[in-house]
Structure formats: C-alpha cells, structure tokens
Amino acid sequence: HPTKPFITSSLQMEGIRKLGLSARNTMRIAQKLYEEGLITYMRTDSPNLSKEAVNGARASVEKLYGKDYLSDKPRNYSAKQKGAQEAHEAIRPAGSEFKHPDEIGMDGKEKALYELIWKRTLACQMKEATKANMSIKINADDCEFTANGSRIVFPGFLRVYVEGSDDPDKAL
Q: pTM, whole model, 2 decimals?
C-alpha cells in the first residue's frame, strides 16, 4: 500500500534519508517552496488531503500513468495520534493542478524536495503494488536449503514513489 502524504516529521525524515539534508535545512527549503506558492503549509501533523488535493493528484496520475494506476476510489487519511494538530492539510503541491517538478523553475535541493512532495502526493492516490512471492526448499541428506524470491506483477504506486529508495525504476 502507498504511504500517507507528508506531515512535518515524515518530510524531515525523508529529506534526511533521500536528500542528505538536515531536518533544519529540509524545513528551510520547504519554507521557501511555501513562500513561492509551490506547496501547502509545511508545519502539520495531519496526513489528510483536501478534496482539491485528491482531485489534483488523481488527475496527475491519470495524465502521466493512465487510469490503470489510479486507486479504485479516492484515499483519505487521518492522524493516528491523539492531540495531533490537524488545522492544516498534509504537505502537498499547492493548487488544484499540480505543477510537474520540471515546471517549477527551480533546481538543486529545492527541486529535489518539491519532487519528493509531488511524488508522495501522487503515490497516495495510486493502486497498490502486486508482488508474487516464491519459496523453494531443497533437502539433501541432513541439510535443508531455502531460497526466497519475489517479483513485481504490477508496480502500482511503486512506479512513482518507493519509500527509502531514491530511484523507483531501480527498485522495480
């Protein structure tokens, strides 16, 4: 299943893991993206997306990957922890039509962070990935050999976003 849209802490963690940024630099760059009108407010505990955001993400998925990659119905998310500050929606590209990362007029770490937010927002509205798993056991005398493997039957959201990996194509 796809991961929830970004909240402040998950954005910081992925900024550290995928982009090599500190939490502070992640938030500094996010602030700049927010001031440029490219993303929504970046201090939030809510993974919830507005109807506008869900429609924007689904339209982008359909345009770029086709209807086969859309989840059957829109996904809605909510915070699990009590007392979460849910005054703002999840961190996502601003507006009802999401700008592709190549269209934002930035490069470097700013573009990389925007692209991370853009990809995760699209991925949360995509179909699940489907994998086929196989396990083989061979017994020879007193020894048992085991081999496990899996292959991706349908990539679904993995086509766009693989948590913990910088390159979805390589992960596929």
A: 0.86
